Amino acid sequence: MTKKQLIEMFNGALELEHAARIQYLAHAEEIVGIDAEPVIARLREIADDEKKHEELFRGILGDYLGVTPTMCVAETHCAETTKKILETNLKDERHAVDFYVKIMDEVKNMKKELKYEYYQIEHKLRHVIIDEQEHIAELKILLGI
Ligand SMILES: [Fe+2]
Ligand SMILES: [Fe+2]
């Protein structure tokens, strides 16, 4: 893995965060019914976390890897019912964790090369992974699984 490839991975991660925030906010507008309010509140709260993740990844890219962060957005996914919305986002959260764990493995492999940046990058990425695992748990609770 080269530093250039690692930058590509972090830009891919930032694209996922852009998409996640938009997707949660759009899905929150779709939820209706007697039990809608807590679900809407939870989706908006998660969207706020995704915004923080964008900032963390921009910091990694700009401050520690020395590049301009991407402005691109990954693919977003539509869903029609509350259940489908929760399932779609659960799938996307799991995909994000899979991808971020892969990035973490690469960051660890490059520890020597990233001597002056490693702990900042590792810490920020770890923070994001921990949050995504929390999102998975929250979505599972709402789904009753
Ligand atoms: Fe995120
Ligand atoms: Fe998330």
Briefly summarize what is shown.
This protein has four helices and no strands.
In words, what does this structure look like?
The chain has 145 residues and is mainly α. The chain has helices spanning 3-30, 36-64, 82-109, 118-143. Helix 1 runs antiparallel to helix 2. The model has no long low-confidence stretch (mean pLDDT 98). One fe (ii) ion binds at residues 17, 20, 50, 53, 96, 128, 132.
Major sheet details: none
Bound molecules: fe (ii) ion
As a percent range, the share of helical residues equals: over 70%
Strand content: under 5%
- Tally of DSSP β-strands: 0
Low-confidence residue ranges? none
What CATH calls the topology is Ferritin
What distance separates the N and C termini?
A: 38 Å
Number of DSSP helices?
A: 4
The top-level CATH class is Mainly Alpha
Q: Name the CATH homologous superfamily.
A: Ferritin, core subunit, four-helix bundle
- Mean pLDDT, to the nearest integer, reads 98
Question: Taking Cα atoms only, what radius of gyration do you get, to the nearest Å?
Answer: 16 Å
Class inferred from helices and paired strands: mainly alpha
